[in-house]
Amino acid sequence: MPRKIRVLIGKVGCDIHERGALTLINVLRNAGMEVIYTGRYQSEENIVKAAIAEDVDVITISDLTGGLVVISKKIMEAMAQLEVDIPVMCGGLMTEEDKTQMATMGIRACMGTDSAVDDCVAKVFEVVGVQPEDY
To answer: What is the pTM of this model?
Structure first.
């Protein structure tokens, strides 16, 4: 069996709405992945440092404040500064314009609040380049 996919779920700033993140933790673990949750009140730089320390395959950012464009920009800047390239996915409250801006920054997937959990799992597999049937 290949190494388990390692996913970091991060919450930035003062967003205390973590139901989606907590749900995703269980869903991804049930899919056989290892999940590291940073908890609330993190900075973008600390999330990237945690991702490096934990040797994750993908960073997922959860936010329900509407600030994902700003958060994504700071995550990508932190990765550039720390000279690391880890795929980033975002989930939460976002507009179609936000999704376009984040895709331009290099965010690999944007999952809105209406996304089905099965779609989130499938997107993680896609982003890390693993076929679910091979996992």
So the answer is: 0.93
